[in-house]
Amino acid sequence: MPCLKTLAITLLCATLTASAQNPARMPFGPHPKLGQSHSGAPAAAATGVGNNPFLLIDYPRSIANQTPIGINDKGRIVGYALFADGSFRGYLLQGTTFKDIVYPGAAGTGAFGINKSGLIVGFYCPDLNCDSSHGFMLKGKTYTSLDFPGAVFTAPNAVNDSGDIVGYYGTPDFATHGFLLHNGVYTSIDVPGAIQTITNGINKQGIIVGFFVNPDGTGGGFTLENGVFTTVNYPGASGTELDAINDSGDIVGAYQNAGDNHNYGFLLSGGVFTAFNVPFPGSISTIPWGINNKHQIVGSYGSYPPDYFFGFLTTY
């Protein structure tokens, strides 16, 4: 499988490898279920990211890796969950009900983006080795496969309310490029000089966020607006990626510090970075993946490395 999506597919690749060796699952406690605060009462009104309740998203029957990736303004959440037999499947979470998303005939499916109308995008793998992947969109009950022309793999990451899709694809020379799919036309996206460009999110204004890697291994997050790339890095971090953007321009992402391979979450709003981490005991990494216009954030928390991840929902 192309282990390049951002951290989400990297986590999946690592866990597919480790799951047969260590299939235990334990969502680090205390862990209030979705719809409850830490006290068991309804979640409180927004007071700022990191201060509001963090609610656990825990797909039934999966092992210790489940990753909610996207959330729309109706609060519907999409992601994927890994199972003890090594398979994985996408899901749609509405309220407290999970609905499986499985591309017909695929061995594995991940759902990564959902817009206001309920259009879902993601990727699927023909076999559990996931040496190649294809994109898909799901409208109602109809799946449509998506492949960037000439690519060896394609992975859509997000879709805005206009139906514009962003993601990334790989070429035979092992380069990775971002893409925009607009009105049926694919456009390649490459940060100048980079060998890897991953586009992760897009809002209704068409502002795109993602991250890039240079030939020397350096890189960072970026925004793309009206054809202009702007590098965005968390202050003092050794690595930064931008994962999602809402229509107000608020961005969530993750960063790492030098000599520390843990992941730390942040919100970038009004030009101000706010770092936050899920406060559950035992969690050493936090990765926010999705944000909507209702000030809701979804993501993953856990102990990567090793490979234990669960989902969260919070507000700001």
Write up what this structure looks like.
The protein has 316 residues and is mainly β. It has a single domain, classed as TolB, C-terminal domain (Neuraminidase, 6 Propeller), CATH 2.120.10.30. The chain is built from one helix and 24 strands. The strands form six sheets. A four-stranded antiparallel sheet has the order 1-24-23-22, with no helix packed on it. A four-stranded antiparallel sheet has the order 2-3-4-5. A hairpin with a 4-residue loop joins strand 22 and strand 23. The longest helix is centred in the N-terminal third of the chain and has 12 residues. The protein is globular.
The largest β sheet comes out as: 4 strands, antiparallel
Give start-end ranges of low-pLDDT stretches.
Answer: 1-7, 9-47
Strand order of the largest sheet: 1-24-23-22
Proportion of residues in extended strands: over 45%
Head-to-tail CA distance between termini: 35 Å
- Overall pLDDT confidence: 86
Oligomer state of the chains in this structure: single chain
* Tally of alpha and pi helices: 1
- Which class do the helix and strand fractions yield? mainly beta
* Fourth CATH level, the homologous superfamily: TolB, C-terminal domain
Instruction: Classify the fold: give the CATH topology.
Output: Neuraminidase
Radius of gyration: 18 Å
- What count of domains describes the coordinates? 1
Strand-and-helix sequence, N→C? HEEEEEEEEEEEEEEEEEEEEEEEE
Based on Cα principal axes, name the global outline. Answer: globular
Number of strands: 24
Identify the notable features of this structure and list them briefly.
Neuraminidase, disordered N terminus, 1 helix, 316 residues, 48% strand, 4-stranded antiparallel beta sheet
